[in-house]
Queue: 2 jobs
Job 1
Amino acid sequence: MNAIEKSIRTRLDTIFSNYQPNDQLTEFKEELVADLMDVYQDFTKSDRSHEEALDDAFSQLGDIDSVLRDMSNTNNQFDYKKQTDESTSNSNKKSFFEFSDNGVHLGNLHIDGDGIRLGDDIVIDGKNNHVKLGDWLHLDKSGARFGSNYYKFDKSSHYHDDDFKETTPNAPTWAVAHHNIQLPISDKKITFNYANATLNFYTNDKSDLITLDEYFSRDNQRYFANITETDSEVTISKGDNPLIFHVRTMVNVGLPKYYPKSHISVINRSGQITAHDLNLDQFDLYMNSGSFKGNNITAKQAIWSLDSGKLSAKNIDSNGLNISNNFGKVLLDNTTSKHAQITVQSGIIDANNFNGGGNFSATSGEIRLRINSLTSNLKIKANTSSIRVTKPGLQSFYFDLLANIGLVSLTESSNTHFDKNTSSYKRGFYGDNPEYTIDASVESGTIKIY
């Protein structure tokens, strides 16, 4: 056993010690050792130290406690007699069939705002995106377990060029109707309001026109976009949206490469949005749920707001980048922003190759930053979260790191100078001529600076 495997096993021993051992857990642990060894090797290509690569590898496990808890409770088999007794008892309180504004109840089948339940064996939890079939299948946002085999989604948080291929969007194969619009560029704000659709923004070959290609799975002119204009804004809104059946919609929006005084705003209730090769004054995005993927975007100002979902962006340059995601992930690679405002309520912020400064905050989840350079002060704040930062190369900086309940660790060298140095609070500077400050605080959690 080499030193790497020993470190991995030691950490896993601590995690597994909270659960009653059995054959399933033992087999699962051995699978994790092999997987973590592979992931660790991947991170050594970019991380600067053994400890940093090890932390990054374990961060890929996500919420493993729920998996271990299920595996350890092998004796909690389904009690048919108990379920029968409970059903008999409940039958005196509820009828076999009920239908109301709260949902549908049909025997052991319950369909309501929380999801779908059939007794205790099948659960589709809509609020937590969790599916459970007895004890042999568990599926959620982090991964899937089939028996004793566990498969992690998004196994690596690194970014791959294949995720950001830049191709001019084409007509989808399912389309039976096409609607084309050409609009002259304007100093007015241009708003695209599509409740449920896939939108693709790209650079067209026009000098003064915005091109709009709508594709539909049903052929009816009622579905075509409506255009309204005021003194300050042009709004392109999705046409009729029938309630009795779904009309699949995709919209390709082409913007001129040179578009002065441009302000593009996108409103999307639930769908997918992509954007690449854009150079705008302001680019705003408001989504209820779904996903956004961007690449090669330059904007003086950008406001990207999601209620839930995943935002991934690469090669972003915006002096004022404001991103908020209530429930989900914010993944950034090669981002430059002097005044960034990045916030998640419950989720993950992962910024790789970041240049600039600003404010990063999370109520619960994880903040992971790899900094290339600081061009202004950086403030990182979390409630019940972990904060991990890879400091900028050889650049000097001040640091002020506080964990009210938790630990603070800082990789020390001869260039590290402390004014205060305790297990939960570290203040000082790194290098010779610091200009900017890394200010990180967490209410309950850990702070690590590599």
Job 2
Amino acid sequence: MSGEWMVKVLEDLTNSFGPAGYEKEVLSKAKSYMQAYADEIMSDKLGSLAFVKKGGSERPRVLLAGHVDEVGFVVSGINDQGFLSFAPLGGWFDQVLLSTRVIVRTQKGDLNGVIAAKPPHLIPPEEANKVITKDNMFIDIGASSADEARNMGVRIGDPVVPCSSFTIMKNGEVAMGKAFDDRVGAAIAMEVVRRLRTEGIQHPNTVFGAATVMEEVGLRGATTIASLVDPDVAIVLEVDIAGDVPGIPAGQAQTKIGKGPSIVAMDASMIPNQPLKNLAIRVAEENNIPYQLSLVARGGTDAGRIHIHKVGCPSLVIGVPTRHIHSAASIMSLSDVRNAVRLVLEMVKRLDAETVRKLTEW
């Protein structure tokens, strides 16, 4: 990747504990990494951070946003035997949950646990072929009673995340881990700000690399970061749904890992500003940066809120194709991350006042 710094950031951020609403650990690490590179670090009152890099002009303000919350759970109950019921934070596919190791963060420290259900040997034949839904699962922390679980520190509302470590695969070309959605986007924004600083790259604007919160529960941090930054143009950095797995027909998910970042033509929350989309395509082609065009029929990103900030903010989503998102082990290509950084850097260099003005010239 762009040196060891980027690998370290990705590993550290994705290994960190931070479901929606409980992102403090991740934000603290991101802030620590960026102290040496940002001209200023700003924060809204939900916790989202903006890393400011001043350029040739105070405006246009270019917002590069990636959210740092991950999908997780909260403890919703403790039964008499000490097993924990849970509620989701963000979207989970029930079938990925069973046997997932988890970490429960309590007032007394972290507890290890596993998501489990009734043993299959004891399931009646008429139920054996049915999908077990999350409301019939529980978290086993090794307790034998409700009192024991409470003495271990468990309370209603304690947050939970999968226990899964960042792993480099395939001779350093591919990474696997949790929380790629969307700490990879935040890491790209951080890397762009870092390289603007360390390489002395000239840019005719002010860049705000943002780490936003609570995207997975309704794009909440996107609303407040837009109010804080008041951007003139926004590039949201996200994962994209890789379609290079068995059973995905052509046209349902267009991107493949290792073939370049995606330029998202539309998702359920936003149709991008068309001149900005075309600029991204042109910049990629002029600089021999591989890219893929993508359409995401379901799901949205922080751009869904940012693009309707005030009277509107021209916005675009650039994604990193990722397999198995919203699970304990996603997979992505590190070359796609490198090329996303390249594409965003080249776009930032071109977003001067006249170019940004023409984005909304009707």
